[in-house]
């Protein structure tokens, strides 16, 4: 029960931080914000690593492998595509960040 | 590594995520924000690999390699017009990974490994994670299919779909509760997740293409919540924190997008808007004898005398891959001392901010990209508005208070206040909302019929020719 309450506390506080931090993103950056946030949600990878490293049965190993692969694709692809997009945004006086 | 040390690194990663998201909110710091986020992720992953419970690394390495290569390949290969579907598929991967990993954790716990006891927190979080993760996996897959053109963008409305959906949701939740009440087996978990996955398909099928910005933002939120649920199962703080940050971010965007259409979230999700098309006769009445069309040369002449031009792009620009010529056009006009700005509606395109990304890719400086609140007061001082591939977001009938219209009350770009309006469009067919647009028949509107890319290319050529003559 104690564990549950402390997890709930973290969860609720983090939601509030999320609302506060993200509330003022200009529409200009909505796509990179979404895809950057999407990459962060790939944090589930951390959990999949532990689960798939335990290797108790073949079934859980297969599940673990799939989960690791999917979460990694989410993390790597998400950050890279965000970086690619952000490199394109440039102001009037700045040079474009790509060839 | 001892557990307190691991948790300290997790705390560091969480802080980096928060700073990363904060920096993503300004164009000048956004690149750094993304790097901070990836640094946080790297730290969390490396620290986790030091976990003493991991007995074998071969599966992990295989998964990291295959997933990493697939993700990098997609991220580099994707065309900017296809970013919405790639974001959708990454989303689905995240949600699906949460569901599968939670399932694996449950199976291991049942075999007596991995956790000391199966608590109520464990089973509740597992059920929630399975349901939301499964839903976001299949929902994202359908969204991907619609955006990629693999399945029709039109809403698919099954008979009794609401009853079916409620039944499936109840069954999925029921199996979830069963797992909590009787955690001696895993079949309730898999049934619950499987039914939620079917529900994910049925929930996204009836949603039309133009409502995709809402759907993608919502699925983004779900994948965050699924990760947070995964964190509850493992009692892992960094998963809970990062997951709820993303859940909050996605939710804010979802609400912003719904507001930009003056529709409630349930209306977007369940009303099946976009299935009906305006009847032939009502369009004929409105347009008959009142629509004036022009050639690119005529529009070019008009533009040469303009002092201020605003371009309002929509999804049609993306479909025609016209963003590069549109960017060129804005540069040609700007080089002649004409003030050029872009007016971008929040829901233009298929995901939040879609048009901004396309125009940035076309080398348009972001100072020229204005959102709805910034651009609307300027239309009265604008000589020409060029509407490219947008329809519902510039439809003045949204202002009329007929609540039966799907776009009633939607904030629109007030392009009809400009001196003249040029609409680039292939035909007079209605937009997504299925209603005719009185703008096309307005006295100060000229229609420039044709494919956006071809027409704008001709327009640029005409402008350059005109310049040479002088």
Characterise the protein shown here.
The complex is a heterodimer of chains A (99) and B (470). Chain A has 99 residues and is an all-alpha fold. Chain A has a domain at 27-88. Chain A is 76% helix and 0% strand. Chain A has 4 helices and no strands. Chain A has helices spanning 2-22, 30-41, 44-54, 58-88. In chain A, helix 2 runs antiparallel to helix 4 (58-88) and helix 3 packs antiparallel against helix 4. Chain A is flat and about 60 Å long. With 470 residues, chain B is an alpha/beta fold. Chain B has 2 domains: 56-270, no CATH class; 280-469, 3-Layer(aba) Sandwich (Rossmann fold), CATH 3.40.50. Chain B has 17 helices and 6 strands. Chain B has a 6-stranded parallel sheet. In chain B, helix 5 (120-148) packs antiparallel against helix 6 (161-181), helix 8 (212-234) runs antiparallel to helix 9 and helix 14 (323-335) runs parallel beside helix 17 (452-469). The longest helix of chain B is centred in the N-terminal third of the chain and has 29 residues, at 120-148. Chain B is elongated and about 80 Å long.
What is the radius of gyration of chain B computed over CA atoms, rounded to a whole number of angstroms?
25 Å
Number of helices of chain A: 4
Which whole number gives the mean pLDDT of chain A?
87
- Proportion of residues in extended strands of chain A: under 5%
> What share of the residues of chain B lie within helices?
55-70%
Largest sheet of chain A: none
Question: What strand order characterises the main sheet of chain B?
Answer: 3-2-1-4-5-6
N-to-C series of helices and strands of chain A: HHHH
What is the approximate shape of chain B? elongated
- Largest sheet geometry of chain B: 6 strands, parallel
Low-confidence stretches of chain B: none
- Mean pLDDT across the residues of chain B is 89
**Number of separate structural domains of chain B:** 2
């Amino acid at each position: 029960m104690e564990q549950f309450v402390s997890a709930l506390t973290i969860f609720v506080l983090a939601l509030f931080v999320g609302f506060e931090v993200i509330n003022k993103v200009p529409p200009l950056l909505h796509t990179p914000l979404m895809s950057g946030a999407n990459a962060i949600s790939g944090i589930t990878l951390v959990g999949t690593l532990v689960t798939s490293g335990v290797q108790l049965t073949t079934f859980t190993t297969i599940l673990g492998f799939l989960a690791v692969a999917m979460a990694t694709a989410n993390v790597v692809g998400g950050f890279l595509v965000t970086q690619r997009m952000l490199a394109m945004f440039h102001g009037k006086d700045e040079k474009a960040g790509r060839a | 590594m001892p557990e307190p040390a691991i948790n300290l690194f997790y705390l560091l990663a969480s802080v980096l995520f928060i700073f990363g998201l904060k920096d993503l909110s300004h164009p000048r710091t956004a690149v750094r924000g993304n790097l901070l986020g990836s640094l946080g992720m790297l730290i969390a992953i490396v620290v986790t690999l030091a976990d003493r419970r991991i007995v074998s690394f071969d599966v992990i390495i295989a998964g990291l390699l295959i997933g990493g290569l697939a993700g990098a390949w997609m991220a580099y290969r994707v065309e900017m017009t296809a970013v919405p579907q790639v974001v959708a598929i990454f989303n689905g991967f995240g949600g699906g990974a949460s569901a599968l990993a939670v399932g694996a954790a449950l199976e291991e716990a049942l075999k007596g490994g991995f956790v000391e006891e199966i608590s109520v927190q464990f089973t509740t979080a597992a059920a929630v994670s399975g349901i939301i993760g499964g839903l976001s996996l299949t929902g994202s897959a359908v969204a991907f299919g619609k955006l990629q053109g693999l399945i029709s963008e039109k809403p698919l409305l099954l008979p009794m779909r609401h009853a079916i959906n409620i039944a499936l949701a109840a069954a999925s939740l029921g199996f979830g509760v069963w797992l909590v009440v009787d955690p001696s087996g895993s079949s309730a978990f898999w049934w619950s997740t499987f039914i939620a996955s079917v529900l994910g398909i049925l929930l996204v099928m009836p949603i039309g293409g133009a409502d995709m910005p809402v759907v993608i933002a919502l699925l983004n939120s779900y994948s965050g919540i699924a990760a947070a649920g995964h964190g509850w199962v493992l009692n892992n703080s960094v998963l809970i924190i990062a997951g709820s940050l993303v859940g909050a971010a996605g939710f804010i965007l979802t609400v912003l997008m719904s507001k930009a259409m003056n529709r409630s979230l349930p209306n977007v999700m369940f009303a099946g808007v976009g299935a009906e098309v305006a009847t032939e006769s009502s369009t004929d009445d409105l347009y008959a004898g009142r629509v004036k069309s022009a050639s690119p040369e005529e529009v070019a002449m008009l533009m040469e005398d303009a002092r201020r031009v605003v371009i309002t792009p929509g999804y049609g620009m993306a479909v025609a891959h016209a963003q590069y010529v549109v960017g060129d056009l804005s540069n040609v006009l700007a080089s002649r001392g004409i003030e050029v700005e872009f007016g971008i509606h929040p829901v233009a395109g298929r995901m939040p901010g879609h048009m901004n990304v396309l125009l940035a890719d076309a080398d348009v400086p972001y100072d020229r990209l204005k959102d709805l609140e910034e651009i609307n007061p300027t239309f009265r001082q604008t000589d020409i508005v060029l509407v490219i591939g947008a329809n519902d977001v510039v439809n003045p009938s949204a202002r009329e208070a007929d609540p039966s219209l799907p776009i009633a009350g939607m904030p629109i770009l007030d392009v009809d206040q400009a001196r003249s309006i040029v609409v680039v469009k292939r035909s007079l067919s209605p937009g997504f909302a299925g209603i005719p647009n009185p703008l096309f028949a307005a006295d100060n509107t000229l229609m420039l019929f044709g494919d956006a890319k071809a027409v704008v290319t001709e327009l640029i050529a005409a402008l350059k020719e005109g310049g040479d003559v002088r």
